[in-house]
C-alpha cells in the first residue's frame, strides 16, 4: 500500500491571535437560526425535492420556529424560480418569516433573482462570490482589485433595485465563499467594501456570512478567524455576523459553537446536517446541544421522530440510527453496566430537578420519546437491563430472583440477536409461572372464608382430584398450610401489571421446599388467584426437584 504524503498539504491562512477573548466566553443565548435545507441541502440530493415536498418541509421549518429560511436558487432552474413564486403568490409565508434566495455576482442572474422576489413582504438577497486566492487565480483568472469591483457592482445593483421597491423589507446577505481558506485581511477588505456599497444602517440590514465552504481548519482556528472579523469589521453595529460551516473534517458543530463564542450572532445550516459532500452544520444537533446546557434554543424539537420521518421522506436521505439526539438508537443501551446506571438514575430523578441520569445527556421526553426503548437486551446486557424491562411492566424482583432470572436470560441471548421486551416477558412466565408447571399439580377451584384465614383448595394431581384445606394468618399462610408438601415462603410480592397482559395482578413468591430454593409467579385477574397460582407453580417445582433421576 502506498504511504500517504501529508507533506503535500499545509495549514490554511489564519490571523495571529492577539488577546483572544472567545475561550473565556460562554453561551448564554441561542444565535439566530437560518435554514438552508431548501437550497444548499436540496442541491446536495441525488434527486432534488419536488416542489410539493419543498412546501411540506417549508411549512415544518416554520412550525418548529425558524424565522429565516433560504428557499432556493431561483436563477438556477425553472422549478426553483416557480417555487419562490408559489410561496409569494399563494401567501404561504408567515408574517414572522423572512425568506432568502441565493444569487451569484452576475448581473443577469441577479435580475432574474430579484424578479422571483417580486411582491415579497420580507426578503433577503444572498449574494456570494468566492474570494480565496485558489479560486481567484485558477477559476476566475483575475486580480484582487477586479474581483472586489465585481462584488461591489453587484451589491450596488441590488441596492438600487431595493430602493425602487420599498414595499419589500430588504436585507442583503453577503458570503465571501471559501472564507476560511482566504487571506483574512483581504476578506475583511471585501466585506467592508460590501457594507459601504450597501450603505448598511438600521433601515438597511446586512448579514456578513462567513462560510467554511470546505472545512479546512480546526474549529479553534475558525473561531480565531471569526473573532478577527468581529473585532475589525467596519459599521459592525449595523451588521449581523453569520457562519455557515461545512463538515468536511467532521467538526462543523464544534466550529459553529466556537464561532458563536467568537462573536457570530447567526448560524446557517440544515436539519440533520444535509448538504454537499459531508454536509452543512447540523442545526438539530447544535440546537439540542444548547438545550443540554440549559440554554433555550428557540426551536421546537418536541416531536423529533416525526421531523426525522418528514425529512427522510422529502429528501430521500436516511438519518443514521446513531445520529445525535435524532437516531433510533441514541437513547438505547445494550451494555449491562449502562443499563444498570440508566435504571438507577431514572429511579432517583425527580420530575422538576436538574437532569442527572447517567448516559442520557437530555431527557428523551424532551424530543417526544418515551422510556420504553431505553434498554434493549442482547448478549452484552446484564441484570440492570432485565430489571428495567420488567419494571416497565410494573414488576420489581428481589436481587436473588433477579440474579436467577438474568442467568437464565443469558442462555437465551447468547444464542445471538436481540431479545425483545415481549420475548423477555414470555420467557419470564415460562420460567416461573404456574402455566409453565402444569404437572403434576393444577388448581381447579378454591373457597376462602370470610375472614381470609381458612381456605379449601380443589386440586388435580395427575389424573385424580384432591381436596386440600388449610388455616393460617391470612390467605397466603392458609394456602401454604393446605399444601401436601412443606414449603417455606421467604418473600412475597404482588404487583399490578401495567402493560402486555389482560391480567391485572402478578404474585411473586420466593422460598424453599425441602431445602431447595424456588422462585414462582402467578398471573391472574386478581391478587388472590395470582397468589394461589404462584403457590401451585412452587409446589410443582419442589416436587419436580425431588423426582428420581
Q: What this model shows, in words?
A:
The protein has 549 residues and is of the alpha/beta class. The chain folds into three domains: 24-315, Alpha-Beta Barrel (TIM Barrel); 336-431, no CATH class; 434-545, Double Stranded RNA Binding Domain, CATH 3.30.160.270. Helices cover 38% and strands 19% of the residues. The chain is built from 17 helices and 14 strands. It has helices at 37-43, 51-63, 78-89, 107-116, 133-140, 144-164, 184-198, 219-232, 252-261, 283-292, 304-315, 336-348, 383-391, 399-413, 421-432, 475-482, 527-545; strands at 32-35, 68-72, 98-104, 122-130, 169-177, 206-212, 239-245, 266-269, 441-448, 454-461, 464-471, 487-496, 505-513, 516-524. The protein has an eight-stranded parallel beta barrel with strand order 1-2-3-4-5-6-7-8, surrounded by eight helices. Strands 9-10-11 form a three-stranded antiparallel beta sheet. It has a three-stranded antiparallel beta sheet with strand order 12-13-14. The chain is elongated, with a radius of gyration of 34 Å.
Number of domains: 3
Question: Under the CATH scheme, which architecture of the largest domain would be assigned?
Answer: Alpha-Beta Barrel
| Physical arrangement of strands within the biggest beta sheet | 1-2-3-4-5-6-7-8
Q: Helical stretch count?
A: 17
| Percent of sequence in beta strands | 15-25%
